[in-house]
Amino acid sequence: MSTKVKATKRPWDAGPVTYIALTILALISLFPFYWMIVISTRTNDAIADVPPPLLPGGRFATNVAHLFDNYEAHFAQGLINSAIVSTTVTLSVVFFSSLAGFAFAKLRFAGRNRLLLFIIGTMMVPIQLGLIPQYMLMVKLGWNNELQAVIVPFLVSGFGVFMMRQYADQAVSDELIEAARVDGCSTWRIYWNVVLPALRPAAAVLGLLTFMTTWNEFIWPFVVLNDPGNQTVQLSLRLLGTTYYNDFSLVFAGTAIATLPLLVVFVVFGRQIISGIMEGAVKA
Amino acid sequence: MGATTRRLAAVASVAVLALTGISACGDDEGGDGNVTLTVDVFGQFGYDELYRKFEASHPGVTIKERGTGANLSDYSPKLTQYLATNAGAGDIVAIEEGLLVQYKPQADKFENLLDHGAGDKKANFLDWKWDLGMADGKLMGLGTDVGGLAMCYRQDLFQKAGLPTNRDEVSKLWPTWDAYIATGERFKSAPDNGGASFVDGATNLFEAILKQNGASVGYTFYDKSNKLAVDSNPAVKQSWDTTMKMINAGLSANYQSWTDQWVAGFKQSKFATIACPAWMTGVIQGNAGDGLTGKWDIATVPGGGGNWGGSWLGVPKQGKNKKLAAELAIFLTSPEGQLGGWKAKGTLPSSPQALDDPSVKDATNAYFSGAPTGKIFAAGARNLKPLHYGPKNLAVQDQVLNASRTVEQKQRTPDQAWTQAVADAKKAAA
Amino acid sequence: MTAQITRGRHDRGSPDAAPQPPAPSRHRLTKIDLKFSPYIFISPFFIIFAIFGAFPLAYTLWVSLRKWDLLGGDGGFVGLDNYSAILKDSWFWNAVYNTFGIFLLATIPQILLALVTAYWLNKKLRARTAFRMGVLVPNVTSVAAVAIVFSQLFGRDFGLINWLIGFVGIDPIDWPAGRYSAWFAVATMVDWRWTGYHALILLAAMQAIPKDLYESASIDGASALRQFWQITVPLLRPTLLFSVIIATIGGLQLFTEPLLFNGSNNAILGGSLRQSQTVAMYLYEQGFTRFNFGYGAAIAWLLFLLIIIVSLANLVLVRRLAGGSKGAEQ
After folding, report:
1. Count of CB contacts below 8 A, B vs C?
2. Inter-chain CB proximity C288 and B259 less than 8 Å
3. In chain B, where are the structural domains located?
4. I want to staple B206 with a disulfide (CB 3.0 to 4.6 A). Which of B129, B243, C238, C257 is the partner?
5. Which pLDDT score, from 0 to 100, does residue A121 have?
6. Tell me, what's the ipTM?
7. pLDDT at residue B294 above 90?
8. Are B346 and B386 in contact (CB under 8 A)?
9. Which residues of chain A have pLDDT under 70?
10. How close C261 comes to chain A (CA, Å)?
11. Positive or negative torsion for Cα B397, B400, B403, B408
């Protein structure tokens, strides 16, 4: 079978088996996306064809137009809401995390280690534990069915603080901070002018991860945003999927459009996201 | 790093665009007389033309319908939540007969429609339909339709299978449910039946039989003192056994009603008959699509008559435009409104005036091969009696229907499934 | 999880910003600044967490001890009644069984496949980033999108998978109908979405293993497989543990995939037999379709307990399985 046998094959040299295996894996990873495109570019009846259609058709624009015409799914509103929510949460998480991460890494204050440990502890608590009282709280505040219900609780992130702390610890030298202090900079100015610029790579990764997580969030919006007129795009997708005039080409067009922003982000920033995940893992 | 910054700046500016885009979108409920009324429904009410009419006579009003085609199990918890949290409900909400009891304790969440001039409309409704809409002397909902039962069938498939196709002859094929099942067996063993099953599925058939059997005692899952009667009401077990017989005969196409597969099943001609209350004719037409015009027909239901379904319209207090909403609800339930629903989706009027109208009495339905729907449904409508439903009727029904599904899916034997149905129903009712 | 600080990367230490012009020294202000700034900087996290994280947690406990529903309101203190009722509730145990079933069915192949994928990715590859992106891309899709696409692929009548298995003579399967077929379908969705993520995490740890370890093993004549099990896996222990715990927390809270997989009718019940209803779905059913807040809150606490127990069990298990070597930490 093997065409070329190397005398000194080392374990980290990739043979054809590796390439084939990885290619198969990548194809499996990509197939559902491809299938999404195939169905979303065809008529609804195509789904019942035997054999199933394996190539994209030409009806994407028509299906998308139908999608936005569908009053019930409120798809456009869902996209706008998701953009608002994800952007706000991302900016806020990056800001507060870098601020707190800087404080934990570089400032001295009583209780620092214990507070940091507490934050790490919060990362372990499953969100569903608080689902019911959180909902009750939102009803009390009158925030159910309002976007702030899915924004405000997520403005900070324990993971973010921890990640920025780890990065700040090694990316910002103590001498630099001292020098800035000698120059008369306030702590805030040090953060803004010295620390934040140095944290930029990590902040970008944190921002990307936060954006994707928020965009994809399902269960909490599902609980708290009941008004179909004011939901996030993930809920619009579910509405599309469960309304009874079930039009697969329309549902898949919606799925494709809801996925597209993330795919663009992923293609553009893939390298950073990968390194972010890998570094995060080594640090945790 | 510079590239990253630029990309982030780009992301940020997109975000800003998205944010500013919203203000341009504006609010539906604006100041200058522009009002949007939302109507929450399930299934098919056939109100589209009536909406347009109301909009035409009320400039600046736009009416949107939500939930078209939804099933009750999805609709009901949402409505409960809307009412309890005072947010999210439509300006008008539809309440199905099986849910009415459940919402009556919350009558204070609804406008008293008597305050909106509905008092003089009493004569527009069958007595019981009006009375059931009352709670504590307040009018919580106005009746829409009633649900006389029939059996819809695919003429073309019957022909293929060598069965009679004429609706009177077909009606004669099944005076009883046993005869219906026997006909199904004939259909099944025919050399050519177009690859279709005889019945759409256990859930729809069970519900239809249950509504019919329940009529003898006047209730189904709950007795009239609101005690759970799943295992004590013989009507429930009888309906169950008939359904099991149908499944055992291999007649089911195995679809759970109101699922997307069921909807697709209509289009793909996967079954030849479906028990159809009047309102179901609109559902069939919508699901099966124009391509099957003239293929369906309507015969009488085995076992003789019954009432399944029918709804009321209520106006939740939480709405912003209650006065206008009440006006719309009165309009939609007026004889004229009920005629509109009948014409569009076959919902059988609960208004004596509408039932007497020639457009109902003498109606035929072209989609159903010109079946005399007036004769089939409207003639008996006055004699329909409401069934009594208990407080957690829907939750209990879900358990029993699911149990019937497990037999259809070959996960349980009928006996196992019945035991489970009773146990789960008790739990759900607790 | 032990928090470790990585080796610093000194090339990133220099800030872009120009130094600020010296400000007039205001000693007192500086003192206040030094003293309070750290607390101000970290306070947003604690304030928001207190309101929207800690308070609901404590409140869940409170609610779980009461009879409380959305419509009837607070029905008073009932002690542990909710808990004892749940422990006798066959629907709850059914949900626990499903949750564990799906969890095991998903996690074991997922971690193994991730391990092998990481091993492949760790080789000297052309188009390295492309392959890495290729395996990670499922992770960026939303669960809702994944569930919608896979539900269609697993469709009874027109699903691609039934069409494919038709070629090897298998009759179409009604995937959501059977317990194990439903588990399998849901587990497939989970694995598709998460295997690449775990592979990258394991890859990161693999890269930190010094290559000369393998070289000396090669000289000793150890096969590649032997090297993988005796060098790679033990050294990956902390990361494996991290992966398993992430998978546990996610797996035991599984909700969206089975919900959407069950389509439009009664989806929250997880099918006609509750064959794919997870604990999280049951929590939702009780809390938000039956509106039994007290009962739901008690389920939430039991779920938390389960997660802790399983995480601890994982800890022991991973120690055992990948045991032996100590120097796993980088």
Report:
1. 68
2. no
3. 35-146+310-356, 149-308+371-429
4. B243
5. 85
6. 0.85
7. yes
8. no
9. 1-12, 48, 50, 71, 127, 242-246, 280-284
10. 10
11. negative
Residue type at C26 in one-letter notation: R
C231 CA to chain A: closest CA distance, Å?
Answer: 12
Structural domain containing residue A103: 72-243
d(CA B147, CA B283): 13
- The distance from CA C269 to its chain's CA centroid, rounded to whole angstroms, is 22
Dihedral pair phi/psi, residue B61, rounded to 5°: -100, 130
- The class (CATH top level) of B149-308+371-429 is alpha beta
Are B79 and B89 within 8 A, CB to CB? Answer: yes
pTM of the model: 0.85
Token representation of residue C222: 């150890």
Which chains border C (3 or more CB–CB pairs < 8 Å)?
A: A, B
pLDDT-derived band at C322 (thresholds 50, 70, 90) equals low
Beta-strand (E) ranges in B188-327? 197-199, 271-277, 296-299, 311-314
Phi, psi of B38 (to 5 degrees): -110, 135
Architecture of domain B35-146+310-356: 3-Layer(aba) Sandwich (3.40)
Amino acid present at B315: V
* Domain annotation covers residue A116: yes
Tell me how many domains chain A contains: 1
Chain B residues within 8 A of A80 when measuring between CB atoms: 18, 21-22, 25
- Which positions in chain A touch B77 (Cβ < 8 Å)? none
Contact across the interface for C142 and A237, Cβ inside 8 Å: yes
Which structure tokens are listed for C58? 């404590």
Same fold, B35-146+310-356 and B149-308+371-429: yes
Walk me through the domains of chain C, giving residue ranges and CATH numbers.
89-321 (1.10.3720.10)
| Chosen from C67, C152, C265, C293 to mutate, greatest number of chain B CBs within 10 A | C265
Is residue C25 less than 8 Å (CB to CB) from chain B? no
